[in-house]
Design brief:
This protein has 327 residues and is of the alpha/beta class. The chain contains 10 helices and 10 strands. A hairpin with a 2-residue loop joins strand 7 and strand 8. The protein starts with a strand and ends in a 15-residue tail after the last helix. The structure holds 5'-O-[(R)-(carboxyoxy)(hydroxy)phosphoryl]adenosine and zinc ion. Zinc ion binds next to helix 3.
Length: 327
Amino acid sequence: MVTLGIESSCDETSVALLDDQRILANKVYSQLEHAAYGGVVPEVASRAHLEKIDRLAAGVLAEASLTIGDIGLIAVTDSPGLAGALLIGVGFALGLHVRHTIPVCGINHLEGHICAILLEHPAIGFPFLALVASGGHTAIYRVDDVGTYSCLGRTVDDAAGEAFDKVGKMLGFPYPAGRAIEEEARLAGSDAVPDFPIARMPGAPLNFSFSGLKTALKYYLNADAARRTRAGRPVICKAFQEAAVRSLVNHCVEAAESTGIRRVALVGGVACNGRLRDEMRRRLGSQVFFPSPSLCTDNGAMIACAGFNRSKRNLLRPPHMDPGGTL
Ligand code: KG4
Ligand code: ZN
C-alpha cells in the first residue's frame, strides 16, 4: 500500500511516500525563516508551511512516478505542535481526503518519531524501549506494539534538544544549535572538562530535568568572560554535551534494568548526536537502534510509517487537532 505522510507540527514542512515501509520519496523543507529570531515564530511557521506544502506533495509524487490515485492512505501529524502549523498539514490532508476519497489518519508526532525506527529496523521486535529526544519533547516509552505506548518518564522542564538550543544561544550559535554544539565539543578532544550536575527526580527516577544543567552552565559562563570566547567554547560545549548525554543514557539504562527490556530505540532530533549514540552502544550493547540522521529529525516518512502500521492493525483514526496532546 502507498501511504502519503504529512508533517507540519513545528518548523519542518515534510511530505513523504512509502510503499508499505519502504521509502519512495521523503522531502523536507527546513524553515530558514526563523534563523533571524533565534527560535520558531508560530505565525511565520504557518505561512511557510502553507507556501511549501503543495509543492512538496507534487514533488514526492513526481519522484516516485505516482499519481494521487495511487495513494491508499494519508497519514498526517495532528498533535502535539504549534496550532497554526498543525492546521496547515491537517487541512491539506483533509482537502485531499474529501476531493479524492482517500482514507486519512491522524498521527501523534511522538508516535511518528518512534515509528521512524521501523523504516530501517523493521525487525526490531516488540516490546522495545524508545527514548524520544527532540527539540520539543524528551521521554522514555515502553512500546508493546504500534499504538500501545506507556510513558515511563518525561522531562519536567526543558526538552533535551531545547537545552542544546538554549546553551547554543548563550554561546552565540544560530538556532537550532544541537549539531553545532556537537561539532564544537569535538574540538575539545580529550581535554578535561568541568563536571556539571545532572538532576535526579526523587520518587520519579525516570523523569528528566535539564533546566538545572542549563542554569549551572550559565553561572559557569558568567563567572569568567574568557569561557565565552572562541577558545573557551569547545570545553563548555563538551562539558554540557557530556552531562546531557549522561542523563539520557543513565535513564535508558535504568529503564532497561527496571523493565527487563534490553532493546532500545533512540529517536528524535537529538538522536543524531554521535556522542549519545556511542555512549548508548557502550552502556547497552548491540540492542540499541537508531534511525539515519535524516529520519531522526522531523520528516513525513516517519508519519507515513506510523499510519501504515496503524492501518495494518485496524487502528486508523480521523485527525483531531490537539496542539497540547501527549503520548
Ligand atoms: O525532532 P526534531 O527535528 O524536532 C522536534 O520534534 O523538536 O529535533 C530538533 C532538535 C533541535 O533541538 C536540535 O538542536 C536537536 O534536535 N539536534 C541535536 C543534534 N541534531 C539536532 N541535538 C544534539 N546533537 C545533534 N547532533
Ligand atoms: Zn519532532
